[in-house]
Amino acid sequence: MQCFEASARLGSFTRAAQELNLTQGAVSRQVIGLEDGLGVRLFLRKHNALTLALTDAGRNYLEEIAPLLQRLERATANARAHRASGGVFNLSVGASLGSYWLIPRLSGFTRAHPEIVLNVATRIGPADFSSRDIDASLEFGDGQRAAMHCDYVMPLDLQPYASPGWIRRFGAKLGPATPKAALINHSTGPQAWSEWFRQAGIASDPGREGPTYDLMWMAMNAAASDLGAVLLPPYMSSDAVASKRLKRLSALKWRAPKAYYLVYPQSRGEHRALQTFRAWLLEQARP
């Protein structure tokens, strides 16, 4: 995402590489990998063009991620500015939850606890605590990890959303006539569409044959680019709805059987900075 943002802002893979201290080829490969993951082209490739030009999907994506990257940079700078009488705390968090729920709230934690240096890393799936680089993980799961404390943080409630362009094409009502390939899946809830339709009393199962994205934020941006309807939690969808990139298709919520937990080894239960963060986190997640 940093390679894409810098390339879009500077209009050049070469200038982005200079800013990020990478090679031009490395920046280009990162952007191509991002495009492949999203399933859309972010830049127009024109032979002999001096500057890069964004596609419509690229402009929408840049508008979405640029503020998130800026907030992440500010949060990191704030944390580093107040070393470290309260200790260093290393947190692992899923990319979508971290970007759309945790990071917008972190300034409150750093203001309340400037003595703690909070380092944040992202990953997919359960954290590997064999490395001493992770003190705790905010992750999606069943809360049953051996030799771990698993504090329930909040549920995952999903509702359907689609872009105005998709709605003009397929209509705002989901049902048996909705094309199977028009429903986007994500690995956080691979059975979510099946369960949502079951809860809605609709016997068909159109979600199985739609495309699947590893990350929820990828699925959300694919939906905003007219690639399909998607099931999202309110913490992700609110900004896209406010900017009219997405529209909610139904008020019906499906609650996933798994939830978000703060997970940490029992051996680290007395970590002072961890317990300070835990208390703050559970207060933030209170309904």
Which band does the percent of strand residues land in?
15-25%
Cα end-to-end separation: 32 Å
Rounded mean pLDDT is: 86
Instruction: Report the oligomer.
Output: single chain
| CATH class placement of the largest domain | Alpha Beta
| Helix/strand/pairing category | alpha/beta
CATH topology value of the largest domain: D-Maltodextrin-Binding Protein, domain 2
Tell me the number of structural domains: 3
The gyration radius over C-alpha positions equals: 20 Å
Q: List segments where confidence is low: pLDDT < 50 over at least 5 consecutive residues.
A: none
- The shape, in one word, is globular
CATH arch. level architecture of the largest domain: 3-Layer(aba) Sandwich
Percentage of residues assigned to helices: 40-55%
Order of helices and strands: HHHEEHEHEEEHEHEHEHEEH
Q: For the record, what is the CATH homologous superfamily label of the largest domain?
A: Periplasmic binding protein-like II
Describe this structure as you would to a colleague.
This protein folds into three domains: 2-54, Winged helix-like DNA-binding domain superfamily/Winged helix DNA-binding domain (Arc Repressor Mutant, subunit A, Orthogonal Bundle), CATH 1.10.10.10; 71-153 and 259-284, D-Maltodextrin-Binding Protein, domain 2 (3-Layer(aba) Sandwich), CATH 3.40.190; 156-257, D-Maltodextrin-Binding Protein, domain 2 (3-Layer(aba) Sandwich). It is built from ten helices and eleven strands. It has helices spanning 2-10, 13-20, 24-38, 56-80, 95-112, 164-170, 192-199, 216-224, 234-242, 272-284; strands at 43-44, 53-54, 88-94, 117-123, 136-141, 148-162, 183-186, 212-213, 229-232, 247-248, 254-265. Helix 1 packs across helix 4 and helix 4 (56-80) packs parallel to helix 5. The protein starts with a helix and ends with a helix. The mean pLDDT is 86.
